[in-house]
Structures are given as C-alpha cells and as structure tokens.
# Entry
Amino acid sequence: MRHALDEAAHAARAGDVPVGAVVLGPGGDLLATGHNEREATGDPTAHAEIVALRRASAALGAWRLAGCTLVVTLEPCTMCAGALVQSRVARVVYGARDEKAGAAGSLWDVVRDRRLNHRPEVIHGVLEEDCSAQLTAFFRDR
Ligand SMILES: [Zn+2]
# Structure
C-alpha cells in the first residue's frame, strides 16, 4: 500500500485525483504499477486500477491474472470492479472507502456479487487514514 500511495502522488502532480495501484504476482512480486491518468491522457478509463491491470497483463503476456493481488489506495468504482472481476485477480486490497461511488463494499459490492462467476477476496482499510488524508489534501488544495 505504501507503494500505491507513492504512485498516487504521481497522479496529483499531473493534476489528477491521487489514486495509485499496484499489482502483485502470486508470489508477492511487483508486476505493475499505475496511477490515475484521466487528466494527463484525456482517457475516461485511465483509472489507476485499469492502468495497473493493463500493465500487469502486458508483463505476464496474459489477460488472466489468476493468483494476483491488486492493491489500490481508494475503493474501486463500478468500472474498475468490473475489470477486476474480468481479470480474475485473486485479491483486492484497498485503503480508503468511497461512500459516493465505491463498488467493493460501500455503495455496491460488484466484486463479491454472488451472481458473477469470479469473486476476488476483498481486504479493506489498509493504511486507510493515509489514503484518505492524501485525497483530502488534494481536494483542499484545489
Ligand atoms: Zn475506477
């Protein structure tokens, strides 16, 4: 999560909301990193999780990220939750909850919807205060 927080700081420097993500391989090795690049790239899908998932798949040469863990500073939105299910990651770890748009336990729980054929394990609240403080500082400074 510390690595994801560092990634998020890169987003803020480019004027993007500071959200950072990392993907760990089955053995815990760092596969990929990503941060929110919507403003930097003009791409509405360039959320930290999507960027990191794409890089992890490129690194592995496969779309299926079985056994992998995605760590992100903010609870995934519906788009990212859908991508996490599609990627077959084993585990999703996030820091701050997103009561307004979270899709991993707050507003929705897409990743653990029993109607879907893949449900990653979810661990939340990791370094939650640090993750929340980074977002709060960004919006306060704007
Ligand atoms: Zn998202």
Notes: The beta strands are 20-24, 30-35, 69-74, 91-96, 121-124.
